[in-house]
Write a structure and sequence with these properties.
Elements lengths: L15 H12 L3 H8 L3 H8 L7 H10 L12 H6 L4 E5 L5 E4 L1 H7 L3 H4 L4 H4 E3 H11 L7 E13 L5 E14 L5 E9 L2 H11 L3 E6 L7 E2 L1
Antiparallel strand pairs: 1-2, 1-6, 3-4, 4-5, 4-7, 5-6, 7-8
Length: 224
Amino acid sequence: MTEQRKDDTPFEGLSWGELLKQYRFTRKMKQMALAEDLGVTQAMVSRWESDRVLPGREMQTRILELVRPEDLSSPVVGWRQFIAEMPAIGAVIDETGVFENVSAGFIREMKCSEQDLVSKRVEEVFEGDLPALFSSLKNHGLFDERIETVESVDIFSCRRNSGSRSEIPVHCMSWWRRGEDQRPRWILNGAKITSEEFRALRQELGGQIRVLEEIVGLQGGQAW
């Protein structure tokens, strides 16, 4: 493995992998779209983003031609706030299953408070699909950066501090992003759907979860 240095890019504090992840995050791009822009494979983008290998000098020049300072308008220090202000369902969850941040949309849809969720483990406040999703993501390598993007269709069943419950069907996308300590976090993004949409999507996915992008460059997706 080539050792990655923080001064490898002209953007202070960002490695090449972090630079590419930040660029995609602010532009809401998939790895495949970035790969097409750079003229490489999605698997190669995955290797760069995991900081396992450095882009070559020619590719570094191409990346810097593509990524401008204004493209990093949501700085690393502000990405948590960006998620917290999302009107959609969103959360940052660490590798032990603890909610670190939750979005305004998550709080609204679950009819709970931030205190009901933040600093709590997923299984402390949710039953059923969400704890199962966390376990599946962990077992299949999300926190080891072995999978990139996962689609899921879930029933979020929440136990509030008041003792009451709320339950909604949700269509989710999950991916990882490194935190300030360089450990991967689970980034959860989703939207409330109808019962009919839930059943149709479960049938389409062939189950609760489907891997859309793997580090090895999975073709076509894989249902779990």
